[in-house]
């Protein structure tokens, strides 16, 4: 052991004011006193304050989360463990989860994002799976903001640094720029891993007399009160602007400086050793249980392991390896120092565990034992410094009922217009392609290694979903998505759209959904209109996942994303994993062959309110979105998935931000081929062409060319291939042949107008982010 702890000095017990300062309410403090049969001491109060925080206890969201579907034919491990897992065949499971590191990233973007990646990777190997991929979902203020550029640069650098260094590919993600995220950026990280099904391990402590071993990095003050405290209260920070002629940086935003000590510091090389050590310990059958140390550090990991196993724990903080010699017992228990794991080991196997830790140079120490007391006792040598009922710590935090109320007036500011009034459809497409929310993400993902581990079949801008080959020749597909602006317009339908978007992305590469994870990013749920957003979003999430048979296997909730200027857009980020039988037939989004037929597929009914074009025009959010026929969308997904899987199509791309014209341009750019398109033909449904009343099938030619070209909505796909393959989709969904792959221009005829764009000018517009973030 490297250092020793000072004896705890006699001191007055903390007061209710101390509890309030740590985030507890008066009523919660009184309940703690009741559970403790007296006022808690410093160690006990610190531990209760973290485990009863919003970040750890989910006290405003747990009741809603219980309504979500969590069981399905592929689910092997559901919510409650470090990550969920689904069966992918051949004796393997895919573990996956998404989590947020929003508030730390708003304070220190590089370390906040880097340790977010490190934390989600530990969740994956904590259940025995080897991490194989990372995705990210990012939100910042408008791209013209100096603060947004500073946060984006730091976040992307942090993600790339950690993922690239540890050797896990970053294979996909998304980023949006919207004013409501100016003071509360969102940094959500998703990870996937593979494991033999029989090697999965759970985190429940078991076996009184077994030993608690802490291994990994030493413990310091970095991160004390970090994720759990920052994520349980509004930042309430006024933004700053860069000094005249200067670059934005930490000193540019001085109101964040006092929160920097709460941000963890990561070391990906230490985590690589920790990963390999953990997996070898499991491979050799040396562990009873395994848990990573994340938010609330040793407090959370130890208490949760004890709660799940219905046992007690005795921990001696003097045995914990320290990187600073003078840590108090409460600091050791709440430190969020990174790259640490906690495991339960039978006494006879402790020496073998410590020997493997020495082999991997991660440092392992026996710090406690499992008891049958049902209490978590903290010692400093022989001195008892904390004694709490495990059930009180973990299970007895009060859960709160929300008081949702639909807002009676607009919540979000109207965006400033950035497109000239009366802009032509031709100019509008170029403006949309240059919009930061649509422009190519290449300047960002070029920071990431997408092909390390040599299993990446489809990477960013090659397909709508990332594709990773499995050992038997099949493949996993994964997508992460959410359009917060549309959720803000209609939390219920907007969330359904986000789920459908993920499933559509999987369909475009030929994958069937297996399971879903989610990260619910919302503002202060104690405010009725935010509670309404959260309630409606969870209702939509549950309905959509049931309809798609893609149950929730785990996730995260991040609340209080709100600053002085107001709340963020409600952002329920959806991550979905699917499987396709043959990796060699994974779909692509780019047009592939001259002469291929192009078709619009599915129940696509575009509308302009809440679209990207509406934002560029400076329009307010609408009060609701159109109804969605989820069954019809699912049928279209099934048809596209099947056609891709049998090789009947050359390309498939779902229609999202920017509508049909933007999707056409993206397909042209991805394939390096032009297209000739005429919007106004027959809708093919089944074996016959259907004319006339096509609106009910999503095939009506709108009287507004802008709506037809740039309107948005669920269920639309743009496919290309031989005419026979394209028309075969009509057996299950709506198909409308609209053109042919040809030449080096995109030509669109609509309502007597004809427009054309060279691939060169489309590409030039699409590279706008390169100029903003060069």
Task: Describe the fold and architecture.
The chain has a domain at 588-774: Alpha-Beta Complex (Phosphoribosyl-aminoimidazole Synthetase, Chain A, domain 2). 33% of the residues lie in helices and 23% in strands. It is built from 26 helices and 30 strands. Strand 2 (84-89) and strand 3 form a beta hairpin. Helix 8 crosses helix 10 (268-283), helix 15 (425-434) packs across helix 25 (759-766) and helix 18 runs parallel beside helix 21. The longest helix has 21 residues, at 146-166. The chain is globular. It starts with 15 loop residues before the first helix and ends with a helix.
Summed up:
With 774 residues, the protein is an alpha+beta fold.
Backbone shape: globular
Give the class from helix and strand content and strand pairing.
Answer: alpha+beta
CATH class of the domain at 588-774: Alpha Beta
Low-pLDDT parts are: 1-10, 226-232, 235-260, 681-700
Portion of residues in helices?
A: 25-40%
**CATH architecture term of the domain at 588-774:** Alpha-Beta Complex
CATH fold naming of the domain at 588-774: Phosphoribosyl-aminoimidazole Synthetase, Chain A, domain 2
Helical run tally: 26
According to DSSP, the number of beta strands is: 30
Q: Rg to the nearest angstrom?
A: 26 Å
Distance between the termini: 47 Å
Averaged pLDDT: 91
- State which percent range the strand residues make up: 15-25%
Main sheet specs:
9 strands, mixed
Output the CATH homologous superfamily of the domain at 588-774: PurM-like C-terminal domain
State the main characteristics:
single chain, 774 residues, alpha+beta, Phosphoribosyl-aminoimidazole Synthetase, Chain A, domain 2, 30 strands
């Amino acid at each position: 052991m490297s250092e020793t702890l000072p004896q705890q000095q006699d001191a007055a017990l903390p007061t209710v004011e101390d509890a309030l300062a740590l985030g507890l309410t008066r009523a919660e403090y009184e309940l703690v006193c009741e559970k403790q049969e007296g006022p808690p001491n410093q160690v006990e109060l610190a531990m209760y304050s973290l485990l009863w925080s919003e970040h750890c206890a989910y006290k405003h969201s747990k009741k809603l989360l219980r309504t979500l579907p969590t069981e399905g034919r592929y689910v092997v491990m559901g919510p409650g463990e470090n990550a969920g897992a689904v069966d992918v065949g051949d004796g393997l499971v895919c573990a996956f989860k998404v989590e947020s590191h929003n508030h730390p990233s708003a304070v220190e973007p590089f370390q906040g994002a880097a340790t977010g990646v490190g934390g989600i990777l530990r969740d994956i190997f904590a259940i025995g799976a080897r991490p194989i991929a990372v995705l990210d979902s990012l939100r910042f203020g408008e791209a013209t903001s100096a603060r947004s550029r500073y946060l984006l640069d730091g976040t992307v650098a942090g993600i790339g640094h950690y993922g690239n260094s540890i050797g896990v590919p970053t294979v996909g993600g998304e980023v949006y720029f919207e004013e409501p995220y100016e003071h509360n950026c969102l940094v959500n990280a998703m990870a996937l891993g593979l494991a033999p099904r029989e090697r999965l391990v759970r985190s429940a402590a078991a076996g009184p007399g077994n030993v608690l071993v802490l291994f990994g990095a030493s413990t310091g003050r970095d991160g004390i009160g970090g994720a759990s405290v920052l994520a349980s209260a509004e930042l309430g920070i006024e933004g700053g602007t860069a000094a005249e002629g200067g670059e934005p940086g930490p000193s540019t935003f001085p109101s964040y400086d006092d929160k920097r000590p709460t941000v963890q510091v990561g070391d990906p090389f230490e985590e690589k050793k920790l990963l390999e050590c953990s997996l070898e310990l499991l491979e050799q059958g040396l562990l009873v249980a395994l848990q990573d140390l994340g938010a609330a550090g040793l407090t959370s990991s130890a208490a949760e392991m004890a709660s799940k196993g219905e046992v007690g724990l005795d921990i001696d903080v003097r045995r914990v390896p320290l990187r600073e010699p003078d840590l108090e017992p409460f600091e050791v228990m709440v430190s969020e120092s990174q790259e640490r794991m906690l495991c339960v080991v039978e006494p006879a196997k402790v020496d073998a565990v410590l020997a493997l830790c020495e082999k991997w140079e991660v440092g392992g120490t026996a710090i406690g034992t499992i008891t049958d007391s049902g209490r978590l006792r903290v010692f400093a040598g022989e001195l008892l410094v904390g004694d709490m009922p495990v059930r009180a710590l973990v299970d007895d935090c009060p859960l709160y009922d929300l008081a949702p109320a639909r807002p009676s007036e607009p919540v979000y500011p109207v965006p400033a217009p950035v497109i000239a009034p009366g802009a032509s459809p031709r100019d509008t497409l170029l403006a949309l392609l240059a919009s930061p929310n649509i422009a190519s993400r290449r300047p960002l993902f070029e920071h990431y290694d997408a092909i390390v581990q040599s299993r990446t079949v489809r990477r960013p801008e090659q397909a709508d979903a990332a594709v990773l080959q499995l050992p038997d020749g099949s493949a996993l597909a994964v997508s992460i998505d959410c359009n917060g602006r549309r959720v803000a317009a209609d939390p219920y339908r907007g969330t359904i759209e986000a789920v459908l978007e993920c499933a559509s992305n999987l369909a475009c590469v030929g994958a069937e959904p297996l399971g879903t994870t989610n990260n619910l990013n919302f503002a202060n749920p104690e405010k009725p209109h935010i509670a309404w957003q959260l309630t409606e979003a969870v209702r939509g999430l549950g309905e959509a996942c049931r309809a798609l048979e893609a149950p929730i296997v785990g996730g995260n909730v991040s609340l209080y994303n709100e600053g002085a200027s107001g709340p963020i857009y409600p952002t329920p980020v959806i991550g979905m994993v699917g499987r396709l039988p043959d990796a060699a037939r994974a779909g692509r989004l780019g047009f592939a062959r001259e002469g291929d037929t192009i078709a619009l597929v599915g129940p696509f009914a575009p509308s302009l309110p809440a679209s990207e074009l509406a934002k560029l025009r400076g329009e307010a959010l609408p009060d609701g979105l159109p109804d969605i026929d989820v069954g019809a969308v699912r049928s279209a997904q099934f048809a596209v998935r099947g056609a891709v899987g049998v090789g009947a199509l050359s390309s498939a791309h779902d229609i999202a931000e920017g509508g049909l014209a933007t999707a056409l341009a993206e397909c042209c750019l991805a394939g390096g081929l032009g297209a000739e398109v005429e919007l106004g033909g027959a809708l093919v449904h089944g074996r016959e062409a259907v004319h006339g009343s096509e609106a009910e099938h999503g095939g009506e030619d709108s009287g507004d060319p802008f709506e037809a070209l740039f309107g948005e909505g669920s269920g639309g796909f743009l496919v290309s291939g031989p005419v026979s393959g394209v028309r075969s989709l009509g057996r299950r969904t709506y198909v409308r042949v609209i053109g042919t792959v040809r030449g080096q221009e995109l030509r669109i005829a609509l309502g007597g107008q004809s427009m054309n764009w060279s691939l060169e000018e489309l590409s030039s517009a699409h590279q706008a982010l390169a100029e903003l973030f060069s």
